[in-house]
Amino acid sequence: MANLDLGRITGQQFPQALGSQTENDNTAEAKRKEMEEKQNRMLGQILQKDAYNRLQSMKMLKREQINAVEGILLHMSANGQIRKRLSDEELKQLLKGFATEDEDVYDF
């Protein structure tokens, strides 16, 4: 009988716990989206429009690699290594510099 009571209590608490998890997931998703928007605004400030568009297009194909490149670009900008908005040609040169022999992610 005690097991039934425990089962009933657990059953009653389950929807509350599930609702709590959903709220946590929504909060985490909102924070992730906010961070992504902030990062995109910052990239828009250091890349000319054509370079920014190239990076976004490449991101559709190779998300992880381009996320790493974006992180490097933002780091370089924060450290003063990028002093003006990069053109598409300058971005291409940087991407070629990041590529290794076995990667074709940065081929144009």
Helix and strand topology:
Elements: H1 2-46, H2 49-61, H3 63-78, H4 88-98
Pfam family, one: dsDNA_bind
GO cellular component, one term: cytosol
InterPro entries: PDCD5-like (IPR002836), PDCD5-like_sf (IPR036883)
Which architecture would the CATH scheme give at its second level?
Answer: Orthogonal Bundle
Number of helices: 4
Helices and strands, in N-to-C order? HHHH
Q: Low-confidence runs (pLDDT<50, min 5 residues)?
A: 1-7
Corresponding CATH superfamily: PDCD5, DNA-binding domain
Q: Might you state the CATH topology name? A: Helicase, Ruva Protein, domain 3
**Total E-strand runs:** 0
Major sheet summary line: none
Tell me the fraction of residues in β-strands, as a range. under 5%
What's the mean pLDDT score? Answer: 81
Indicate the structural class. Answer: mainly alpha
Report the C-alpha radius of gyration, rounded: 22 Å
Q: How helix-rich are the residues, as a percent range? A: over 70%
Terminal-residue CA separation: 70 Å
CATH class: Mainly Alpha
Number of domains: 1
